[in-house]
Amino acid sequence: xxxxxxxxxxxxxxxxxxxxxxxLSIYFFSExxxxxxxxxxxxxxxxxxxxxxxxxxxxxxxxxxxMERNNPASLPNQYIAIYNYRNEELYSSDGTAVxxxxxxxxxxxxxxxxxxxxxxxxxxxxxxxADRYDRFTVVAAAIDVYGLDxxxxxxxxxxxTFSLSLLLVSVLGWIYAGRVLRPISKIVSQVSEITEVNMxxxxxxxxxxxxxxxxxxxxxxxxxRLQAAFLSQKNFIANASHEIKTPIxxxxxxxxxxxxxxxxxxxxxxxxxSVLGGLRDLNDxxxxxxxxxxxxxxxPKTNFTSFRIDDALWEMKEELQKAFPKYNVDIDFDxxxxxxxxxxxGDEHLIKVAILNLMDNGxxxxxxxxxxxxxxxGNTDYITLRFGxxxxxxxxxxxxxxxDPFFRGKGNLSIKGSGIGLSLVRRIVSLHQGTITVRSVxxxxxxxxxxxxxxxx
Length: 457
Description:
By secondary structure, this protein is α+β, with helices and mostly antiparallel strands. The chain has nine helices and twelve strands. The chain has three domains: 3-152, PAS domain (Beta-Lactamase, 2-Layer Sandwich); 211-294, Helix Hairpins (Orthogonal Bundle), CATH 1.10.287; 300-453, Heat Shock Protein 90 (2-Layer Sandwich), CATH 3.30.565.10.
């Protein structure tokens, strides 16, 4: 069931309930008024008859019957009977009694003073009437022909009105639901037209005041984020393809040149070593790309363990200097630090990758291939690592871009690198709820500050 049909049914149900309550209330109060009015008129007729019989000496029962017979104010099928305290009938209207009057009924009237009851279409009333000398029991009955006809006519009018109203409400409810859902249908139509080739399109936000305008605004915000993500992905794929293609092209060219004519063994060894170096660079690049992809889908605490951050620093220093013997890494920290204060919780492998990248960058982009690492644990909530070096530094307009994938500063294009390392470092630090900042004075010092929260698994 679609929303339009559901809204129509809800609207229809509410109106049906409301009309039912109104119609039933009208009928109930009309019936109640008819009954009260009929019994009031019936009692007035019976009271007047009893007064004439008991108070006017010149009028006896026979004369009163003739008077009532020709009275135009008499009710249809009117029957009035008057009894004394011995249950003797003093007066009764002409014709057959339309209700059965017995001793039980008369005693009930005397006990309750006044009762009303119904036999078929005949409605009857019994009450006590007292004059100056005696008390009488009066029973009056009649058929409210005109009242019942009016009530039946009212019932027919209400049923007809109710039926026509249901038909009208159904049509109006369907039209109303369509008008309400029209803006939503418009939004759905606009969203369905947006694809990866026209991500720059946006939804109409209308008057920017109602809920649908807020919905369109939310969609537009989401589209902006999606467009940025698609653009980032597109650029990432283009840059990654370029970075991968370059060493492959170089290695292919070297092999092609070596096959043009016979060469001496030393030349082939040189070519093989160059190809091996290219393959290693390609392996490092694909490893960095794989790590970047893994950390993008990484679930924090999945591989978290407790380990000492100083052990990771020493291990990565040894690994880096083994690969690049000319690099110098100085680690500076207070030897009086409690060993337990150096414990952090995290993915040890990823944190080592981040440390190695920062060490490598510090040495690679410094003038003397040297980086200094300061380890601080003064704040019990965080462990702080500062990676500093002396070199060309980073220009102010490039500081906000150095963590973007594949970005490389203009002054460092001659130095070998892929531009992935810092973006990977930031992602790893972020996964551990840490922070990384950079401060650089061109030609002087460049310092990266990493803070990891102290947590234990």
